[in-house]
Amino acid sequence: MPVILAEKPSQAKAYAEAFPKGSKKEGFIIIPACSVFPNGALLTWGVGHLVELRSPAEYESSWKRWNLSQLPMIPNTFKFKPSYKTRKQFQIVRRLLQETNEIIIATDCDREGENIARSIIYHAGAGNKPTRRLWINSLEKDEVKKGFEQLHQADQYVTLYEEAQARQISDWVVGMNASRLYTLLLQKKGIQQVFSVGRVQTPTLKLIHERQKEIEEFTPEPFFEVKAQFKTDKGSYEGKTKKRYKTNEEAKNVLDKHGIASKDRGEVKEVNVSQKRVKPPKLHSLSTLQTLANKKYKYSPSKTLEIVQSLYDQPLKLVTYPRTDTQHITKNEFAYIQKNLCSYQKLTGYMFEPSSLQPKKRYVDDSKVKEHYAIIPTKKVPTETAIQKLRTDQKNIYFEIVKSVLAMFHYDYEFEETNVITDVKGLNFYSKGKVEKARGWKELFDSGVTKQKQGKQQLPELPPVHKGLQADAFIHIKKEMTKPPKPYTEGQLINMMKTCGQVIEDDEETKAVLKEAEGLGTEATRSGIIKTLIRQEYIEVKKNIVSVTKKGEILCKAVEGTLLSKPEMTAKWEMFLKKIGQGEAQKQTFISNTAAFTKKLVDSAPLEVDSLKVSAEGLPAQKRNFRKKTANGPIALCPACKKGNIVHRQSFYGCTEYKNGCRQTFNKTILGKGITPSQIKQLCEKGETRLIKGFKGKKLFDAKLVLKHNKVEFSFPSST
């Protein structure tokens, strides 16, 4: 009987629900004989990657120590090993794969899913078995069953695996070498920190840093505008001249030239009214949903991905595959959406007569859909009770997705835009106004939040003026100051990464490369890259505003001028990777090019960093020696899940059961005080630490740390 290999337990459970109830064994499920599998099937799963690249020390013992003389570390052959944390499940999967006569790959339908599956299969010694591929966009029972009835030949997806493995190996080469290189070089300059460097995260950091420098180096300059308040028998309105003036005297000279007093007379010279229509927005890709959720709800991109993934996964299965870069659907999806239109309307409480029930190419275009289509609701329409059981963040994101689909059937937003020119003694004043005629699709998004934001951006409503109308004009000169660029919000980082070519003005070739590659990273990886930058303490997010830390600034200075600092390098890499996925380029060529780049970096960086002027002032003290093996050992049993162990992470202590849902973490620094492993051990095992001296509040204070409901609180001497 065939073995079905899913990516994770929740995915396997969703697949199993599409078939007659089977018997659950340790690490797999037996699917009984049915119409799809006449002889039954065995359904097993990974826990993400069961197989990973070996660490440097597992190739060469001398690579265990961080030493410049050992760089670059480039193995002749890259080798994989079962992950220590999930080795038990790997043994189960390996036995099933070795015993079966057919394998069905049923991991996520993308390059990383292909990599997970084939890495497991090849490492299990089952690479020569007949293999087919499940390719679906929804975990609903009907879609799952249909997908298994229409399995694809797995050979057509091998290039996706080659693409993903080229990415995985090259990231290892750059990350392992460049991180050690810059950490050791900066250590010589007195900077006792560990610097993680990567081919995507580092140019992303550099772009954020460049915006921050623009803001810091910006010098506000005054400018002056000539404005007027006009009063007519039809009503009042404001206007201003088109030109900005550098000085108040320059603006005053213009008024004097025309003989204009502070109170004067004007006449409406021209009135142009144009009818405007705005089509409903496109359907959501992951990045558009992340950008919207950050702007509207202040969710971080990684939180939005986590939410939409939970709506996709078992048991909810309310939305389609989330990691998509497409904003179109095919006629098949449109058919069921149209059929469920009334149900979706009732769900949101927005009942309206559709403008059309025909598919529009703006949303429905089979030629624009490659691997996945836009994020849309599934055929499964939840009951009111089911909706109430969702968390608030799940409801928010689900309704945004449903409303984006409803908007597809709604009317255009219509308004009149009026442009008025008022003449005051030969000087033209310009006014612009807007009158809404039909809310159309906008009524779907008329929440209190959006109405308030729209109100700030609305053009004023002008009175019904006409050509020749006389007006009293009250003239004044208004001083303004030029404003610096705004810092990025966390949601804007997604768009910045995707459209970073737009910030390059002088190099058309580079701009074209970035546009073709769709910027830095991929739809599925961008939120993870931002999360990594935060975790590595290169950036921080306060009130949704992103800023680069002192540590981030030092790394940006260190890589200045290298290809690691340039987004076009990453874009070219992504384009090459895509070509591998399309069968137009070779994996080994990409890896060889990466190795050559890394060797060159190792040769050139020491001289560049040596001339660098950096200071450790303002950096937090390094709390641990990165060379110590004990840094990775278990500290204590996790107090939350009672299954995993609390271990060192890069900038915090966390549970080894993270991938299985345990989110227990502890900060390594609390109010300027470093928290040691032994104190974490006390906290986990006894529920409190001994008295810790030197916390930095408004003044220094001493306290114990206590664990209540898996959260850390202070206990003060007077209360113990």
Automatic annotation (TrEMBL):
Pfam families, A to Z: Topoisom_bac, Toprim, Toprim_Crpt
BP GO annotations: DNA recombination; DNA repair; DNA topological change
Domain Toprim, chain residue ranges per copy: 1-138
Family annotation (InterPro entries): Topo_IA (IPR000380), Topo_IA_2 (IPR003601), Topo_IA_AS (IPR023406), Topo_IA_cen (IPR013497), Topo_IA_cen_sub1 (IPR013824), Topo_IA_cen_sub2 (IPR013825), Topo_IA_cen_sub3 (IPR013826), Topo_IA_core_domain (IPR023405)
Coiled coil residues, start to end: none
Keywords: DNA-binding, Isomerase, Magnesium, Metal-binding, Topoisomerase
GO molecular function, one term: DNA binding
EC number of the protein: 5.6.2.1
Signal peptide segment: none
UniProt keyword Cell inner membrane present: no
Gene Ontology CC, one term: cytoplasmic replication fork
Catalytic activity annotation: ATP-independent breakage of single-stranded DNA, followed by passage and rejoining
Record has Isomerase as a keyword: yes
Enzyme class, first EC level, given as a word: isomerase
Domain Topo IA-type catalytic: 157-602
SUPFAM superfamilies hit by this protein: Prokaryotic type I DNA topoisomerase
Family: Belongs to the type IA topoisomerase family.
Protein name as catalogued: DNA topoisomerase
Organism of provenance: Alteribacillus bidgolensis
